Every structure is written in C-alpha cells, then in structure tokens.
C-alpha cells in the first residue's frame, strides 16, 4: 500500500487524532491555539477530546467507515492512545499522512517487540524472557526471579502485571493472566525512574524535553519533577542519547516518550516507550517554551522543530479521581480556589464527567524560579488536596 509522506501543513489545515482521551484533548487544544482545525475519532460521545474538537467521529477505532471519514476530513492523522490497533493506522496510511507510522506503534504495543528493539539499538533493558508457551514458561532461567510478569500487550498504569518470587508463583501468574503472551522481567533494584520526551520530524531532525524524574504510586505516575540537575548530567545525556537512538531506529515521526529506570548502582536501563505525548511530559505545558503537544502538532504538520527551553523549575502532580472522595463516598469538587491561590499553580482538568478512584481527572503543574520553591508549593497543594 502506498503511504502519504508528511508535508508542510500550514495553520488552517485539519489535524486528526485517533483516540479521545486527555492526551487527544491537549493535542487538540495545542493545534487549535496554532490555528488548526481538529478531528477526533472515538466511540465515546462524552470523550474529553471529542467534546472540544471541531469534528468528532463516533465509531470504533477499527471501523472502516469511521477511518475513511477521518481520512477525508484530515490533512494528517496521529494517535493518542497506544492501544489503537496498528492495523487502523496502517489502513489510514493508505488514505492520508499518518504519524507515527503503524510499524513504529506496533513495536510500542508489544513488550516483546519493544525489548527486541532496545536490544537492536544497543540500549540496555531489564534481563527478560518472552513467555508464549508452556515450554517457554518451563525453560525460564531462575536468574530472572524474583521478577515481574507483564502481558506483552494492552498493559498500562501497572495493569496486566504480577510480581512473582518463585517458579511456582510464575506459573500461577501466567495462568492468572490468561496464558496470553507475556514478558518476564527480572525485578531490578531501582534508585529512581525518569523519562525523556523526544520529537522527531519527517526529515529525521530530533529535539527533546529535559529529563523528567518520575514517582509512581501503585503503578500509576503520581509526581514528575523537572529542573536543571534533577538527574546527574552524565546520566541525563545518556538518557537523551538512548531515547534519540530508539526513535531513530524506528524511523519515528512524532512525539515519543522513553521511560527509564536508574538502578541503585547508577546504571541506566530503558523500561518502555509510548508512541505519543506522555503524562510525564505534561509539565512542559507551563515550564517550557514549547510543550510536548505543540511538538506533536509541529511533527505532524511538517513545521520546524525547535529545541524547547525549560524556563522554570516544575513539579507536576497527577489529579486522580480519589481526590474527589476525601470526604466520603459522595464525589466532592476539590478546593480549586485555595489551590489556585498558590503562586505558579496551573490547573489542567480533562472534562471527564465522573470522578472514579484511580481515574486520571487532571494534573496540576507548579512552576517556580527554584526547585525548592516548586517543591514547597507542591507540598502545600498536596496538603490542600488532602
Ligand atoms: P506500565 O505500562 O503499566 O506503565 P511499566 O512496565 O512501566 O508498566 O511498570 C510500571 C511500574 O512498575 C514501573 O514504573 C516501575 O515502578 C515498576 N517496574 C516495572 N518493571 C520493573 C522491573 N523490572 N523492576 C523493578 N520495578 C519495575
Ligand atoms: Mg510505564
């Protein structure tokens, strides 16, 4: 099938996104701010991006009519949700420019392929084994235990993962996960986690955001902290170089997030990639002169990529639905007025109709002149939010 290369799309063109979640919403906001029209494909009539987009096609991601409608409306299409089937992107690519390409998204959608790509790029990842059959399960070396068994596909926010200590626990976990293809990873002694957002243009040019330092709670990102020196400089450049070589190896066009582990002995190990802007890059909306969503617009529209500059220290706090239930079982709006009295507090809400435990409802970006000030304000915000 012939594909359509990205070419320059000036403001006034229509940019489409597969998926109507918060990432699609913030992409659409960035595109609209730059004078583009937007189209969203998502079956949910109430989706965060669908509600604010010029066009909203309400079909499943793999509906041929929906995809054809999207292609006819749009000058280029991207994705915001890594579980949009790669075949949908491949089908679209025959009708309009698509970035990132289905082939790159397919690698990010499958932990086994993803790990093979890291190895091919010469970037160290966790020792691991692919488990697709009972024979492969039986042959797993004990050196990988204790470990984490992860489904090869469709995992996110720590879902589809089981921590295992012994071979017997591993066998039980594989059954529990439905005997689907999995990757077993050795449990690594983490010092901390970080990530890098890379944007790569159709001409192969790359720019990146500064390295983000991330804190997860229960498998979900809770806090991101970014300032000069938040990660030792040698480690930061190693992470940026690794992220760029992973993007180059995929001939990637678009915004890519690469997540890393920093081990207690100081080694850097790549964890996984997301073929889209990422929760850990949200701080860029307020702390950088170019956000990850503007980078996404620029890569899709063939616009020049300029190296973003961090102009403030930042702390990003994820706002999960749990914050609506600090007073009991009835949802109550958190005290935004008090939070917004804090200097440098920027509230981003995704317009989701109902708060639920564990659901990402929004985030709070806190910017300040110094890391200490940003951290102090973040602690105040966290105390207010209870
Ligand atoms: P998800 O796709 O759900 O984000 P990850 O593979 O990133 O899945 O795992 C979620 C979190 O679990 C990581 O951010 C890290 O805190 C922890 N984790 C995952 N793999 C390992 C590992 N091999 N060793 C130690 N901790 C891990
Ligand atoms: Mg992750």
What characteristics describe this protein?
D-amino Acid Aminotransferase, Chain A, domain 1; binds adenosine-5'-diphosphate; 12 helices; Rossmann fold; alpha+beta; 17 strands; nine-stranded antiparallel beta sheet; four-stranded parallel beta sheet; 3 domains; binds magnesium ion; 386 residues; Dna Ligase, domain 1
Please provide a written account of the structure.
- Helices cover 29% and strands 26% of the residues.
- The termini are far apart.
- β1 (14-18), α1 and β2 (37-41) form a beta-alpha-beta unit.
- α3 (86-93) runs antiparallel to α4 (102-108).
- The chain is globular and about 55 Å long.
- It has three domains: 14-98, 3-Layer(aba) Sandwich (Rossmann fold), CATH 3.40.50.20; 127-186, ATP-grasp fold, A domain (Dna Ligase, domain 1, 2-Layer Sandwich), CATH 3.30.1490.20; 190-385, ATP-grasp fold, B domain (D-amino Acid Aminotransferase, Chain A, domain 1), CATH 3.30.470.
- It has 386 residues and is an alpha+beta fold.
- Strands 9, 10, 11, 12, 13, 14, 15, 16 and 17 form a nine-stranded antiparallel sheet that branches. A four-stranded parallel sheet has the order 3-2-1-4, sandwiched between helices.
- The structure holds adenosine-5'-diphosphate (ADP) and magnesium ion.
- The site of adenosine-5'-diphosphate has 17 residues, from β6, β9 and β14.
- Adenosine-5'-diphosphate (ADP) is lined by residues 126, 148, 150, 155-158, 185, 187-188, 190, 193, 216, 219, 259, 271-272.
């Amino acid at each position: 099938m012939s594909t359509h290369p990205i070419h320059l799309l000036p403001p006034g063109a229509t940019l489409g996104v597969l998926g109507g979640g918060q990432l699609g919403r913030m992409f659409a906001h960035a595109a609209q701010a730059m004078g583009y029209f937007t189209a969203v494909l998502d079956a949910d009539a109430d989706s965060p991006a669908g509600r604010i987009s010029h066009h909203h096609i309400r079909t499943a991601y793999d509906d041929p009519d929906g995809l054809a409608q999207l292609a006819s409306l749009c000058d280029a299409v991207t994705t915001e949700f890594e579980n949009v089937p790669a075949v949908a992107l491949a089908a679209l690519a025959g009708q309009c420019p698509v970035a990132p390409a289905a082939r790159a998204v397919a690698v990010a959608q499958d932990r086994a392929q993803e790990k093979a790509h890291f190895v091919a790029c010469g970037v160290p990842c966790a020792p691991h084994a692919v488990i697709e059959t009972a024979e492969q399960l039986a042959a797993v070396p004990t050196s990988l235990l204790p470990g984490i068994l992860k489904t090869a596909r469709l995992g996110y926010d720590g879902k589809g993962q089981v921590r295992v200590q012994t071979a017997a626990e591993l066998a039980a976990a594989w059954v529990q996960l439905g005997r689907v293809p999995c990757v077993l990873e050795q449990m690594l002694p983490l010092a901390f986690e970080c990530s890098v957002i890379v944007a790569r243009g159709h001409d192969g040019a790359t720019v990146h955001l500064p390295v983000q330092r991330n804190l997860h709670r229960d498998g979900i990102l809770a806090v991101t902290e970014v300032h000069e020196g938040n990660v030792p400089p040698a480690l930061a450049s190693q992470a940026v170089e690794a992220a760029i070589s992973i993007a180059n190896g995929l001939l990637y066009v678009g915004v890519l997030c690469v997540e890393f582990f920093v081990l207690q002995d100081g080694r850097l190990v790549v964890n996984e990639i997301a073929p889209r802007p990422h929760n850990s890059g949200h701080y860029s909306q307020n702390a950088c002169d170019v956000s990850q969503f503007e980078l996404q617009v620029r890569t899709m529209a063939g616009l020049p990529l300029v190296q973003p500059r961090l102009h403030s220290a930042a702390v990003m706090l994820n706002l999960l639905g749990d914050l609506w239930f600090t007073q009991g079982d009835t949802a109550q709006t958190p005290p935004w007025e008090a939070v917004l009295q804090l200097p440098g507090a920027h509230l981003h809400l995704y317009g989701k109709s109902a708060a639920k435990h564990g659901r990402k409802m929004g985030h709070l970006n806190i910017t300040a002149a110094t890391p200490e000030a940003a951290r102090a304000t973040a602690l105040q915000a966290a105390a207010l939010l209870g």
